[in-house]
Amino acid sequence: MSGESMTTQEMEREAEALFISNKLKKAEPLLESLTQRRSPRGTYLLSCICESRSWAEAGDDDREEAAELLEMASAAGDVIASIEYLRTFESDMSAYETRINKLVPKLRDLAESGDVIAQEYFASLLLDVNVSEGVKWLKKAADAGYWLAIEELAEILYLGIDSEPDYPEAIEYLKKGIALESARCNLYMGYCSYMGHEVLLDYGAAMNYFKKAYKTGPRGTAGEAAYLMGIMYKNGQGATEDDKIAAGWIELAADAGYEPAFYELASCYFTGRGVEQDLDRAMELLTKSAEKGNEKARVALGSLLSLQRGN
Q1: Contact 134/162 with Cβ under 8 angstroms?
Q2: N or C: which end of the chain has fewer CB within 10 A?
Q3: Mean pLDDT (whole number) for 119-126
Q4: For residue 58, what pLDDT is reported?
Q5: To the nearest 10°, the Cα dihedral for 148, 159, 237, 260?
Q6: CA–CA separation, 104 vs 92, rounded Å?
Q7: 104 with 79: CB under 8 angstroms?
Q8: Please, which pLDDT band fits residue 54 given cuts at 50, 70 and 90?
Q9: CA pair distance 291, 253, nearest whole angstrom
Q10: In this predicted structure, what is the pLDDT of residue 65?
Q11: Angle at 186 between CA 184 and CA 187, to 5 degrees
C-alpha cells in the first residue's frame, strides 16, 4: 500500500513499526507525510530522526529542524514531545514543575498501555531517580523489540550502572541490537571481544565490531570506535602493528570530538609516531585535551611550554 493511499492511522502504525526496528531511512518519508497531516506522534518521531542526524553529522540545520518539529509536536499534544520540549526549553522552574506534574502521569498511562516508545522515554526519566525501576521499563520496551531500549539496556547491563556488570544478559541484548544494526551494540560487543567478557578474547572480532560501529554510529559512537581501532593498530592487536594507520584512526576519532583521542594524537605529533612531527599541532591538541579536563594533558602542556621557553 502506497503512503498516499494509507489512512493517517495506518501510516502511523507503519512508520512507528519501522522506527522501532531502527529502519529510520524507510520511516522518514512516512513521518514527513504524517507531519504534513499534523500527526503529533509522527511529527515527534521525525524530530527524533533529525536530532539523531545532527549528532551523526554535527549539522546545525538538522538540529534547528529537530527543535522546530519538537515544538510542533508539543503544540499538537504529543505527550512525549511536550515533556521533552519542557525539559529542553522551559527556563521558568515554577511553570516547568506545574506542567511536568500533569504530563508524567499521562506518559505512565501510555507506557502501561504497551506503547514501547513511551516505555523507553518513561524509563529514561526514571533512570535519573530510580535505576532499578527505569531498567524494568527499559526491559519491557527492549523485549518488545525497540532498538533504542535494547541499546540503552545493554549498555547499563554491560557497565553495571547501580549494580555489578551482568555480561551474559548484556550480550543477550547486544546480539538483539546488532541484528537491528545498532551502532552502540556493535561497539559494546567489540569491547566484549576485546576484553574477553563472557566470550573468547578475539581481537579480530573486536576490530570488526568497532568498524561497524564507526561506519553506522553517530559522532560520539563513531569517535570512540575509531579511537579503539587506532589503539589496536598501534598495539598490533587484531592486525599487524602500523603506526601510520593507527594515527589515521586516532585522527578520525579526534575529528569526531572524542576527547581521549586529543591526548593520544598529541603524543603522535609530539614524537612523530605515524605522522610527521609537528609540535604546534601537538600543543593545539594538548590544549583541547586539557580544556576537557585531562590532567595528563595539562601536565604535558606545561612541560612542552617550558621546553619551548627554554629554547
Answers
A1: no
A2: C
A3: 97
A4: 58
A5: 90
A6: 18
A7: no
A8: confident
A9: 17
A10: 94
A11: 60
pLDDT digits (tens, 9 = 90+) for 165-196: 999 999 999 999 999 999 999 999 999 999 99
Amino acid at 116: V
293 in the Ramachandran plot: left (φ > 0), alpha (ψ -120 to 50) or beta?
A: left
Domain boundaries, the chain: 1-113
Please give the model's pTM, rounded to 2 decimal places.
Answer: 0.90
Long-range contacts of 78-81 (CB under 8 A, 24+ apart): 78/40, 78/41, 78/43, 78/44, 79/103, 79/106, 79/107, 79/110, 79/118, 80/44, 80/107, 80/110, 80/117, 80/118, 80/121, 81/40, 81/43, 81/44, 81/47
In DSSP notation, the chain reads: --GGGS-HHHHHHHHHHHHHTT-HHHHHHHHHHHHHTT-HHHHHHHHHHHHHHHHHHT-HHHHHHHHHHHHHHHHTT-HHHHHHHHHHH---HHHHHHHHHHHHHHHHHHHHTT-HHHHHHHHHHHTTT-HHHHHHHHHHHHHTT-HHHHHHHHHHHHHTTTS---HHHHHHHHHHHHHTT-HHHHHHHHHHHHHTSSS---HHHHHHHHHHHHHHS-HHHHHHHHHHHHHHHHHTSSS---HHHHHHHHHHHHHTT-HHHHHHHHHHHHHTSSS---HHHHHHHHHHHHHTT-HHHHHHHHHHHHHHHH-
pLDDT at position 3 is 57
pLDDT of residue 2: 52
Phi, psi of 254 (to 5 degrees): -65, -40
Q: How confident is the model at residue 113 (pLDDT cuts 50, 70, 90)?
A: very high
